Amino acid sequence: MRSRASNSPLSGVATIATGVLAVAFMGGTGVVRASVSVPQAADMASASSVAYTSTNWSGYADTASSGYAFNSVSATWTQPAVTTQSSSSYVAASFWVGLDGFSSTTVEQTGTQAVIGSGGTVTYSAWYELYPQVEIPVFTVKPDDKISASVTYESATNQFAFKITDLTSGASYSTTAVGTQTSKALRSSAEWIVEAPEFGTSSGSYQLSTLADYGSFGFNNASAGISGKSINQTGSISGVNANGAATLNSITLVDGNTFQALSTPSALTNDGASFTTNYVPEPTSVALVGLSAMGLLLLRRRRA
């Protein structure tokens, strides 16, 4: 269901297409799932840069202008160690690159995740997913491992190629696939995201996880490819915005109740290919200030 945000970012909630990050425990003892629905600003395609807040995403998303479509996204990063001071039973953080999901109903994504179990044990793994199919864990990772990940659209077969490599351990996985819904993927956005995923509980309900404390995290060598209107262009996060082909959108993850920022992206580096996100512990008292210039994305999350 689609709706438009009201003029007040604190009272209006815009929800549109839903995408999913489904996170499976490597031990097979449970399933963590995350789904997102993201509002689309009325003037997003025409703006040169747009700032958003979200209850589960933090980072950057490029959105394609009319007549353009993304065909690749990639980045490298170092897997952070995570901790938590929360008593919540659901604590996690996911780090990924992907196509679609910001303003469309599919997501083609790959990345890593950290899940803190009830006993405090942390599980780190790599995965890929084509929503609405479930996420596929592919190998374990460790803190400080160097990761390289990419998603590429192959026009000859209308499929998506996923590749994720642990440059430290040498573990690597690649596959080419298409889902029942992703065969019609719009390829309308490219993302570099830190996410608080959603957990499936034993009762069959779903609960948004508490974002794990990941400290400071950086996406590096980030790039995307876009084609359309006689342009077939590959560049950095900011590079694909040349010629009006795309719009750059920054996303700050906030607490859904207090609106306090919990994960904030930095400005892009001069080459437009790197940025950091920083975990922000929530204070005991919060003043609702500084949000008037941002579109608040309260993302409704659902189970596939």
Brief description of this entry?
With 304 residues, this protein is mainly beta. It contains no helices and 22 strands. The strands form 3 sheets. The chain has an 18-stranded mixed sheet that branches.
Describe this structure in words.
The protein is mainly beta and about 300 residues long. The protein has one domain (about 20-295): Peptidase G1 (Jelly Rolls), CATH 2.60.120.700. About 0% of the residues lie in helices and about 50% in strands. The protein has no helices and 22 strands. It has an 18-stranded mixed beta sheet that branches. Strands 1-2 form a two-stranded antiparallel sheet. A hairpin with a 5-residue loop joins strand 7 and strand 8.
